[in-house]
Amino acid sequence: MVNLISPVSKQLKSxxxxxxxIVLIIGLAALGAxxxxxxxxxxxxxxxxxxxxxxxxxxxxxxGASVMHQRVARTVFSxxxxxxxxxxxxxxxxxxxxxxxxxxxxxxxTGAALFVVSGIAFFHISTANQxxxxxxAGAAITAVFVFGIGSLGxxxxxxxxxxxxxxxxxxxxxxxxxxxxxxxxxxxxxxxYWQMGSVGSANWHDITTFLPFLIIGILIAxxxxxxxxxxxxxxEAASGLGVRTGVLRxxxxxxxxxxxxxxxxxxxxxxxxxxxATHVIRLLIGPDQRYLIPMSALAGAIIxxxxxxxxxxxxxxxxxxxxxxxxxxxxxxxxxxxxxxxVRSL
Length: 346
Fold this sequence. Notes:
Blueprint: H1 2-11, H2 20-40, H3 48-56, H4 63-96, H5 108-122, H6 128-151, H7 159-181, H8 185-195, H9 204-231, H10 235-240, H11 245-267, H12 273-285, H13 289-314, H14 322-339
Helix pairs in contact: 1-9, 2-4, 2-13, 3-4, 4-9, 4-11, 4-12, 4-13, 5-6, 5-7, 5-8, 5-11, 6-7, 6-11, 9-11, 9-13, 12-13, 13-14
């Protein structure tokens, strides 16, 4: 990784994007507000006393304190998943030079879901590690397939071709998922809740299982950031700056697939987070990947956490799954981006 990045780091001058400090402060404040809202709101609103008991008095036996214990794990898990999806979206957009790339748009989430449902149906998987392994394998194979199909023909992997390839692949894989589930009632029961995308069943075991994958993905993304800036200039220009573009794309893609595959395995196929987070941050601070990647993680954590809160409030006394909320918000935005004349390669 050092040989891949160092030639670029020596030639690119470091400059802080305009308004970066302001955006960071506002983002951290918004993150704090989201955390408080996630702890306080749900099918029952938790007061300050119960919130403090749940956070600082583990022995408290009140109903509010017991609810708080569950909400703390749920909030931490949603922050981790949102941050991971934000980074994955930023990496996929940079690698493909496609401003509307996202795990859900490119069909990567559907590929991960197909492998998971196949594991449930044919191999009776049940542990988190088994889910993660199959989801990452499915995400990787689908990503390679979609990029290969989208690269065929004149012009190479253009944004529209990649989106069409992703949509077609996702539709085909969704049909396979239905074909596997429909004859198997027990598989449908286990898969039905998971496929909506939810952080409601989060626990500390899921979080500790997820953290190593999250840390690895973050480290790879940060180490690749400077070289991804050069890649935005084009393969020839990046090669002239000393970047091995093939190796860079492989490493960054592995990080993106690892992050979105792990999230899909544990929380289900939650869509549009990477697309929304990266676009918002790019509009605010520009395209420099050294700042775009960490800020996309912050934005992704905010978007997913507040979407979870909205789903709980609107669905009270039950809840709307967070995957439904993000799809309701993200789908119209994707349509607007796709029809804009300015949508082109980065």
